[in-house]
Design a protein that fits this description.
Chain lengths: 198, 372
């Protein structure tokens, strides 16, 4: 399992009810179910990924986070997880609001557009950045609302969203992000993980 | 057909009060089983059939000599694996394969009930079938499953008996018959009523059955089970055994010939009055209405695990109507999974060889069986 999922799993206590939005093939769900006794549900847009989840015995609903989160009642999950999909939504702000309505807490991860390799790519090559976490070309990328760790920090503040914990991942290294080191972490991390609440 | 030796029948002694107000006593429920019930009696799956189905789910139907209606899904090593599970299916009340229906004799007149048979509902059907659990000594079913009207029975069953099934699989169905659904059923009923042989439901002997009306009803309904794309790909404007149009009203086109054939074979195995009664039961189905307009309340008492399946090209019970059930379940935090299967085969997809559907069904059942 990738490092990002390890970090997310560590943020979730045992025996909780969790919704994984954009759960993909269900790797994180399966880990949480087996290791944390999580009562886990998934929402996934891809039919083939939903099939993979069913084959793993996971409870998944085929659907789109922008349209289908509204069917879940307020605070019906202890945690709602959104891994590296925020930037692909037409309206990320609406999705964040929905995550925070449905979940008591939300865990959101973003590929960091402030990462030095991303900056360098655009600066030197003058073309849209392609990295390990952002492998697509500009014309076929699903990512239409890229942001940096700093952007997400400022966004949360402006919307009175409480950030309980924010973590930066650079390869295998995980470190805490705070107001003091934000600029540095925003430069060196390729992924940001936020535990938030409203 | 009731005299056939191949039909297993349970005579229900317990009186059953029907939604119409009448109470029935000592009525027969015809059923079939596949596989074997294990020692713990925890491997039973109750399958519900659709409008024109019967209890002969798989293998050769002993009456019609054709394959069972769910042969693709049910059998050894299939999605509903009869090596593993004990599958039970009953002919619905109102049907014509041995269960209490309009072709049965009315003791007060000595002739068939015909149109004097009480109007029955989906609720009546599942209440009648519930007696099979007692018959087999099954405390809790591992699963209940069915497509189309079978799916409606699944929904009604779990709402009536919330702790009697561990998993619940409604397929290509709805919680409430739409105006369009009712309209198509009415078309079929009117076709039957317009056949002079129907005689207000009072036909009885072989030579006066309303087979023309019933065939037209079947032809119209059959169109609703297929998709436009599926029809176009299979038939297009292809001509039936002729080089050119004949400028007449014979079946010039293959699709015409196909529908006529579907109509003609249907009348050999189905009873016109049963068709009227069962379509009526479907039209009356509105699960939310039974719970004062709140569909979620139908499922509030159950802890069962739901898996809902729809098909992209099903315009009879479209995905959105299946999703409405998912939404009602999610709003009470029920355990519900949902997938829409890509298929060009229309509403009939659930009866056909649609690999994505069959593998989803198999995976859900087999994984759930190891966990619960």
């Amino acid at each position: 399992m990738k490092n990002e999922f390890q970090v997310i799993a560590e943020l979730i206590e045992k025996d909780k009810k969790v919704l994984d939005v954009g759960c993909g093939d269900g790797i994180l769900m399966q880990f949480l179910k087996n290791n944390k006794n999580t009562n886990i549900r998934g929402l996934e847009i891809s039919k083939s990924k939903v099939q993979e989840c069913i084959a793993k015995g996971l409870t998944v609903i085929e659907g789109n986070a922008e349209k289908d989160l509204k069917q879940f009642p307020d605070k019906s999950f202890e945690y709602v997880v959104l891994s590296q999909t925020l930037q692909a939504f037409l309206n990320p702000e609406l999705v964040i609001n929905e995550l925070l309505r449905v979940g008591k807490k939300a865990i959101v991860t973003i590929p960091n557009f402030g990462y030095w390799r991303v900056r360098l790519h655009l600066l030197i090559k003058g073309t849209m950045p392609i990295t390990k976490t952002l492998p697509d070309e500009w014309y076929n990328t699903p990512n239409i609302h890229m942001c940096s760790i700093k952007d997400f920090f400022y966004f949360a503040k402006s919307r009175n969203i409480k950030i309980f914990k924010s973590l930066a991942i650079n390869n295998q290294n995980v470190s805490i992000v705070n107001d003091g080191n934000l600029t540095i972490k925003n430069f060196f991390a390729d992924l940001g993980i936020f535990l938030i609440e409203k | 057909m009731n005299a056939e030796n191949n039909i297993k029948t349970l005579i229900v002694k317990k009186p059953l009060k029907l939604d119409c107000g009448k109470t029935i006593n000592e009525f027969p429920i015809a059923y079939e089983t596949y596989g074997s019930l294990n020692k713990n009696k925890d491997n039973a799956i109750l399958v519900f059939h659709a409008l024109t189905g019967d209890q002969f789910v798989t293998g050769q139907n002993p009456i019609t000599k054709k394959d069972g209606w769910w042969s693709y899904a049910v059998g050894p090593d299939k999605a509903i694996d009869t090596k593993k599970y004990f599958v039970i299916c009953a002919n619905v009340m109102g049907g014509c394969m041995g269960s209490f229906g309009p072709s049965h004799e009315d003791p007060s007149t000595g002739t068939a009930f015909g149109a004097n048979f009480p109007v029955i509902t989906i609720n009546d059907m599942v209440n009648a079938q519930y007696n099979l659990l007692d018959h087999f000594g099954i405390d809790k079913l591992f699963s209940i499953a069915g497509g189309s009207m079978g799916g409606m029975q699944v929904l009604q069953f779990i709402s009536n008996f919330p702790d009697k099934a561990k998993t619940v699989i409604p397929i290509a169905c709805t919680s409430s018959h739409s105006a369009q659904n009712i309209a198509f059923n009415e078309l079929g009923r009117q076709a039957i009523a317009a056949d002079s042989n129907w005689k207000g439901g009072g036909y009885s002997s072989e030579d006066t059955i309303p087979n023309k009306g019933l065939a037209v009803a079947r032809m119209a309904a059959h169109i609703t089970y297929l998709s436009k794309k599926g029809l176009q790909e299979k038939f297009g404007r292809k001509l039936q055994e002729r080089e050119d149009l004949k400028f007449g009203f014979d079946a010039d086109f293959q699709i015409e010939s196909y529908l006529r054939y579907q109509g003609s074979v249907f009348v050999d195995r189905f009873d016109a009055n049963s068709y009227l009664y069962i379509t009526r039961a479907m039209d009356y189905f509105d699960l939310a209405k039974q719970y004062k307009g709140n569909l979620s309340d139908a499922f509030r008492a159950t802890r069962a695990k739901f898996f809902i399946i729809s098909f992209t090209s099903d315009w009879l019970y479209p995905t959105q109507e299946n999703k409405d059930i998912v939404i009602a379940l999610n709003s009470i935090g029920a355990d519900v999974g949902f997938v829409e299967i890509e298929s060009d085969k229309g509403h009939d997809s659930f009866l056909l060889d649609v690999p994505d559907f069959l593998s989803a069904l198999k995976n859900f059942l087999d994984k759930s069986y190891t966990e619960i």
